[in-house]
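User: For a reading group we're discussing how well predicted structures match intuition. Take Deoxyribodipyrimidine photo-lyase. Before you show the prediction, I'll give you the sequence so everyone sees exactly what went in.
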Amino acid sequence: MIHTERIKKLNQKPLKEGDYVLYWMQASPRAHCNHALEYGIKKANRLKKPLVVFFGITKQFPEANNRHYTFLLQGLQHVQNSLDKRGIKMAIQIVSPPKGAIELAENASVVVVDKGYLTIQREWVKKAIDWLKCSLIQVETNVVVPVETASAKEEYSAATFRRKINKKLDEFLVPLKMEKLITHSSDINMDSYSFDDLHSIISQLGLKSKVAPVSKYKGGTLNAIKLLGTFIKHKLDHFPDRNDPSTDYLSHMSPYLHFGQVSPLHIALEILKTKSPGKSTYLEELIVRRELAVNFVYHNPEYDNLKCLPDWAYKTLSKHQNDKREYTYSFKEFENAGTHDPYWNAAQLEMVHTGKMHGYMRMYWGKKILEWTHDPEEAYQIALKLNNKYELDGRDPNAYAGVAWCFGKHDRAWKEREIFGKVRYMNDRGLRRKFKIDSYVGAVNNLVS
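Assistant: Thanks. Here is the predicted 3D structure of Deoxyribodipyrimidine photo-lyase, as structure tokens, for the group to look at:
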């Protein structure tokens, strides 16, 4: 089922007498549980046209590097193969996404596009609206509850957001039917990259940052679904204990969710099938917390800087910005895990070498960057830059919200103290008290040695 709340006509142009329906895939590169794809197939069948899927690989996506592009391309290979089996032509080109979509739309009856939440993704769509000569329809598929349906404004915290989104869940937690395309498009002649050599495509992008791909996580919907199955079978029961860094009770879905390679709706429905005691805790993270982050970046244009913080947090950090720091480190010292703290260093090394950091350690990691830099503005930018450079799920609503949380976003005021003011504080004593934190350090050191 595709709810009308997911569908939005973005311009007033009419249907054209074109050769095909075009699905401009940008934020949701997957063939599985994709409302935009299924809507495109429905539209093509109604018009008795073939469906063509386009994905534009831009060389200029902010802060993207070899690690990110490799994971993306691995996923696109899965998509292309899956669509080919359904008789759907997929054109993958190295081109500015709106430019490529506009060019292919010259021969299209209508264009369908999925919905992204970052500024750059929204700018792409705005650019296309100005140039397209046919109807442009956006279909939202990367959240369980459409962002504007969940809330029409930026929410203050999970508590305020939870009440609103939970009222909508029963309506939107329904399976998506896979449609069969009547008129195949596989034989349409159209420029597209093949995936015989991923390194060749990467080299053509001319990336300045050479952050290496990781071996622990491979992109693609099939890999995500396999990993999800393992999580449900072996880890979901233990998910309420997920905060312990010395264990691994995480689903590791965040890279796949970030790249749109797996549907949050599919994950939620698979979790709901279980009788696991970890079910409600996991759904809280997947839906309430993740979609609160989407709400944040969608409604707050300052999501990537300190101005996004609530007034109390911004004021208290400003008040304490000149407080004396016992330690201060440069960006390079942070990047090279060169602090005095073995726990922080281990978290940084885990991120650099695996593309992902344990969620609890990411909170501690961000708090300590605030404590060990000259001022909050510098700390915020260092945290974002490191996170976006090395995390596979960086440059993402969850990533921006996660960094902002370390500075007071979506949180309440606590007892006032040096440097942090009323922002929540974390220390290494808490790690030692709650967890076998030295086991975590040892495991990371073994991993990177």
